[in-house]
Amino acid sequence: MTALDELVAVMARLRGPGGCPWDGEQTHASLAPYVIEEAHELVEAIEAGDDEHLREELGDVLLQVVFHADIARAEGRFDLEGVARALTEKLRRRHPHVFADVAVDGVGDVVANWDAIKRAEKPERDSALDGIPASLPALARAEKVIRRAGRAGLALPEETATDASAPETEDELGRALLALARGAAERGLDAERALRTATRELEQRLRDAEAAASGPDGAAAR
What's the rounded mean pLDDT across residues 125-138? Predict the structure, then answer.
């Protein structure tokens, strides 16, 4: 039995008859906050550069995957094998330059191919901005919207352009953001909420422009 097989068996035992009452009553919804928390703790471990801490936090993230898969298994929907199988198929499908005969010229082609394949897989998405989680922290979501728009060729509003005096390194950017946060706090403003609101407004403007460019048949010109 591999270590992963043993982990799956332990989880099934914890959630099975005579197991842990707390584990047994959990649902996908009740576990959702832990997924977010463990992801943040993993990032913290990565940035700390501590292998022991990193291994522990990777285990905690894996626990969430195994936990959710066991809930689905007990309900007869899918199991961890199904999760792994679907992921393997997706990785092969989205890397035709590795597993098929598609030629690429650098990372730019890889990203473009990935986006094109993803659009073909998810035809129900009307916008290049669909699929960006609303629960992302405001700054991370703003960056995601801007980068996704750039890859899709959507023109960003002029006020989002980089100022000549903008920070050029992450250290400078961090200090500039901290100064903005301090100024907001001193004025009683909520910086996180302000950025969420501004990002929603930007996203709506981009979506409107995208829809207008797609033509009357609704087929986006991307």
Answer: 86
